Amino acid sequence: MLEAPEGSATRPTADRVRQALFDMLFHAPWGGRDCVEGVRILDGFAGTGALGLEALSRGAAFCTFFEVDRAALGALRANLAGCRMREMAQVFAGSVLRPKRAVEACGLVFLDPPYGEGLPARALAALSGAGWIAPGALIVVETGREEAAPVENVEILAERVHGAARLWVWRAGGDAAE
Questions:
Q1: Rounded to 5 degrees, what are φ and ψ at 119?
Q2: Between vectors from CA 177 to CA 171 and to CA 178, what angle results, nearest 5°?
Q3: Taking the C-alpha atoms of 15, 56, 155 and 123 in order, what is their torsion angle to the nearest 10 degrees?
Q4: What gap in Å lies between CA 129 and CA 28, rounded to an integer?
Q5: Rounded distance between C-alpha atoms, residue 144 and residue 37, angstroms
Q6: What secondary structure, in 3-state letters, does 8-42 show?
Q7: pTM, to two decimals
Q8: Low pLDDT (below 50) residues in the chain
Q9: Which residues form the signal peptide (predicted)?
Q10: Class of residue 125 by CB neighbours under 10 A (exposed 0-12, middle 13-18, buried 19+)
């Protein structure tokens, strides 16, 4: 069980939603084990790190986590240590909206921002501009159930509702964020 800070500021992705997401990634016609295993992952708005840790446990090569909340950072670091995955990860205590330049682009990007604030499109633009998103990368965004698609003009590969959450999946285009 992952540590999570007290209060409602951090909203870890529910176990059943994570399971459904990874089942979809591994078994969808556009997915497969190759979209996770051996791939560099980015977990933006990481919170407890649940999505990135799940990817690492399923064979991802490395995960970069972005988080700004101090309590969430403490939980994330404790979870990395508890899962014995510190050597497979890098934690940036900063905003995914202002990332430093990437050393290597990621093939799978998870964004689980606070709902209803329009953050996914801004984060994707910032990450793309800083070289974090590889062309053809899978982008997975969690929004509130009632929110519109987080970006326009992309072919949504999958859209699933799980309780209060809606998952969106698409492949990055030539400019990465689209």
A1: -80, -30
A2: 65
A3: 90
A4: 29
A5: 28
A6: CCCCCCCHHHHHHHHHHHHHCCCCCHHHCCCCEEE
A7: 0.91
A8: 176
A9: none
A10: middle
Number of H helices, E strands in the chain: 4, 7
Residue 16 CA from chain centroid, whole number: 16
Burial class of residue 157 in the structure, from the number of CB atoms within 10 Å of its CB (0-12 exposed, 13-18 middle, 19+ buried): middle
CB 12 within 8 A of CB 2: yes
Domains belonging to the chain, first-starting first, are 15-171 (3.40.50.150)
**47: three-class secondary structure by DSSP:** coil
Burial level of 103, CB count in 10 A (0-12/13-18/19+)? Answer: exposed
CA nearest to 35, candidates 139, 129, 132, 131? 139
pLDDT at 8 (0 to 100): 58
Q: Decide: 68 and 91 in contact? Cβ < 8 Å.
A: no
The total number of residues written for the chain in this structure: 178
Tokens 């014995």, residue located: 84
* Token couple for 177: 């964020």
Q: In the structure encoding, which two tokens stand for residue 129, read together?
A: 């501009």
